[in-house]
Specification:
The protein has one domain. 37% of the residues lie in helices and 28% in strands. The protein has helices at 2-46, 48-53; strands at residues 60-63, 78-79, 95-103, 111-122, 125-136. A 5-stranded antiparallel β-sheet has the order 2-1-3-4-5, with helices on one face. Strand 3 and strand 4 (111-122) form a beta hairpin.
Length: 139
């Protein structure tokens, strides 16, 4: 009888640890999404013409697996998809952080749609936190 109780307790504990780890990873991913969004707001405010030049009609993907600082600009980011090797300088190194910048010239040439996506894998399952923001020129 005691072994049945112990097996159940161990199973519950393992599930609890997995849930806590997953929630921590999700919280970090949400922080990474917010960090990129605030950084993009600054990029837009600094120079709109340059900002919209980094978007394309089909969508241009940028890898943001590096730490953002005041010297970071869109031109310092590499294009294309990232590996799941995390944000450099932070643990755990399991994240893929990307921006897809799209402009729709036909609908409105002064609008840029930025999809900020942070992905990670836990126990072989792919998880994604993302936000889509529409930027436009200040009038």
């Amino acid at each position: 009888m005691l072994s049945i109780v112990l097996v159940a307790a161990v199973g519950y504990t393992v599930r609890l640890v997995f849930t806590m780890t997953h929630n921590r990873h999700k919280l970090v991913a949400t922080h990474y999404v917010d960090e990129v969004k605030e950084w993009l707001n600054g990029e837009r405010e600094t120079d709109w013409d340059q900002f919209q030049g980094f978007a394309s009609v089909g969508g241009q993907t940028y890898c943001v697996n590096n730490q953002l600082n005041l010297g970071s600009t869109l031109s310092t980011l590499s294009t294309g998809t990232c590996n799941f090797d995390g944000v450099v300088g932070n643990d755990p190194l399991i994240y893929q952080r990307q921006i897809v910048m799209t402009k729709n010239l036909a609908a409105n040439p002064t609008r840029i749609i930025a999809l900020i996506r942070v992905s990670w894998r836990d126990e072989g399952v792919l998880y994604v936190e993302q936000i889509e923001t529409i930027y436009s020129v200040w009038e």
